[in-house]
C-alpha cells in the first residue's frame, strides 16, 4: 500500500508491463510479491499468494496448489504424463528425444502444455486465478527434469549416466512457457546422480531422519524407483526400473491404473 516502501532492487520486466494500469485500477493499493529483492508480481489488496508444487513422474504428473500464507493445500490433482505417447519408459523417451532437435522440443512442449492445464484446473477447483501463483517448484527423475528444461538427454542413456546439471535451479517460469504470475520463478531441486533425480531429493528432505541411530530405508516407487539406505548420517542411494508393474507390460490378467481399470462398483448398506 502507499503506507509502506518496498525493499526491492528492481521489478521483473513482465510485471513492469502491467504495473502502471494495475496500480491505478486498484486505487494504488496492492500486494507485492518480492523475491530476493525483485518484484515478481502484483495483486490487489487484499489478495492471496499461491504456490504450485509439481511432481513430474514418468507416467503421472501430480500438482498441488498451496496457500503460501497459511501453508494449506487448496487443491490437488494427478494427470497422465502426455510424454508417454512418445515412449512409455525413460530410455524409449530418451531415444525419441535424440532422434532430432525437434523431437526433444516436442517432448518439452507437450509437458509444459499439460502443466499449464493442470494449473488452470487446480485454480478452478480453489476459486483462484493462475496469476495468483507467485512461486512454483518441480521435482522429477533426471530424465524428466532434463526434458522439461530442454536439456540434452543423450548422455543419460550411456554409462555413467551423467546429468547435464545436478545443482538446484531457479528459472523464470515464463521462459519455459508456464503461464503463472508474470515474474514467478520455477525452482527445481538438485539431482543426485544418474537417474536418481530431484524427486528423490524431495523424498529425503520430507521424510528421512538422517540423524537416527537406527537403519532406515526410504523408497520412492514409480516407473523409475529410487531406494535410499540411511545409517548413522550416511545415505546410499540407487534406482531401478519398475515400469512394467505400472505400464502394463506383458500383464496377462489386468491392466495399468487407467480409465477402465474399475470393472464394477457395488455399494452395500447404503
Q: Describe it for me?
A:
With 270 residues, the chain is of the alpha/beta class. It has 3 domains: 10-44, no CATH class; 50-202, Nucleotidyltransferase, domain 5; 207-247, no CATH class. It contains 6 helices and 12 strands. The protein has helices spanning 13-25, 90-97, 101-126, 142-149, 198-207, 243-247, and strands at residues 10-11, 30-35, 38-44, 50-56, 60-67, 73-80, 133-140, 169-172, 185-188, 216-220, 224-231, 234-241. The strands form 3 sheets. Strands 6-5-4-7-9-8 form a 6-stranded mixed β-sheet. A hairpin with a 2-residue loop joins strand 2 and strand 3 (38-44). It comes from marine sediment metagenome. Residues 215-268 form the RACo C-terminal domain. Residues 50-207 form the RACo-like middle region domain. It holds the Pfam family Raco_middle.
* CATH architecture grouping of the largest domain: 2-Layer Sandwich
User: What spatial order of strands do you see in the largest sheet?
Assistant: 6-5-4-7-9-8
Q: Give the % helix.
A: 25-40%
Output mean pLDDT.
84
Protein name: RACo middle region domain-containing protein
Pfam families: RACo_C_ter, Raco_middle
InterPro entries: ATPase_NBD (IPR043129), Corrinoid_activation_enz (IPR052911), Raco-like_middle (IPR041414), Raco-like_middle_sf (IPR042259), RACo_C (IPR027980)
Topology overview:
Elements lengths: L9 E2 L1 H13 L4 E6 L2 E7 L5 E7 L3 E8 L5 E8 L9 H8 L3 H26 L6 E8 L1 H8 L19 E4 L12 E4 L9 H10 L8 E5 L3 E8 L2 E8 L1 H5 L23
Parallel strand pairs: 1-3, 4-7, 7-9
Antiparallel strand pairs: 2-3, 4-5, 5-6, 8-9, 10-11, 11-12
